[in-house]
Amino acid sequence: xxxxxxxxxxxNYNLHAHSQFCDGRDSMxxxxxxxxxxxxxxxxxxxxxxxDIDSPCNMKISQMDEYLEESxxxxxxxxxxxxxxxxxxxxxxxxxxxxHIDYFQMLPLDFRLGSVHFVPNQExxxxxxxxxxxxxxxxxxxxxGNDLRYVVEKYFEQVLMMLERGGVDLLGHFDKIAGNASQxxxxxxxxxxxxxxxxxxxxxxxxxxxxxxxxxxxxxDKSRFFxxxxxxxxxxxxxxPLAIDSDAHYASKVTAGREEAFARLREFxxxxxxxxxxxxxxxxxxxKQ
Length: 289
Ligand SMILES: [Zn+2]
Ligand SMILES: [Zn+2]
Known about the structure:
Elements: H1 3-9, E1 13-14, H2 28-37, E2 42-45, H3 64-78, E3 83-86, E4 89-91, H4 102-106, E5 113-115, E6 118-120, E7 126-128, H5 133-142, H6 148-165, E8 170-171, H7 177-184, H8 192-208, E9 211-215, H9 219-222, H10 232-237, E10 242-245, H11 258-288
Parallel strand pairs: 1-2, 2-3, 4-5, 5-8, 8-9, 9-10
Antiparallel strand pairs: 6-7
The structure holds zinc ion (ZN) (2 copies).
Residues 16, 18, 89, 247 line the site of one zinc ion.
């Protein structure tokens, strides 16, 4: 079953979760149990994909068979109550490494989650801009010559390139860079050049037949979703399908932030419906005249 069908059928799904195969803190077994207990009907594992650079947070190619086997074992043991999906959160590093390459396209995955975490600096060195703010600040100062706008623009450029190269079914946390960037400059998301980058992503996704994720992992600590709810109106107006995912790294967090995101999304959608009904009525009364 494809992810569009899943998200249109039920809210009891989660399409983004980590485990012992990358930087998750609990095993797939523990996480699947928590997901089953939470009443999930569909639950996907998405270890950070292998990458062709050194990265302790990503799984190794040598672990792939073991991962696929563990996923099938759990799929069988939870069927038919909960359907387990096998996926990867695939890093886009550039032309040579991303969801589009043969290696990821040939793997027996149910869908491909594409995300950007690594941003090349001015010399082309890839630095992991996700994670702790202190590390981001070090990279900003010593890796990117203190040019915050460069990092942000390059991050979004990577997202756009990933979409252009294709092979992505679900776009992970497309403005994740804003987490660290807005801590470095709280005004950054208010800049018109920043909003233009967001608009660009939204129009690319609309043309790309890709589901967009609302990532709720940071909601409990930072009261924000990725993408930020300041952009949800635009996304809803573009009629892009949205999947709400916890990006859990712990069994205890399989549903973290999801209820809040669904509630917020319903508010946005009811405003959108009101607007549409109103313009429909206006059109009808115009026609009558
Ligand atoms: Zn991610
Ligand atoms: Zn993730």
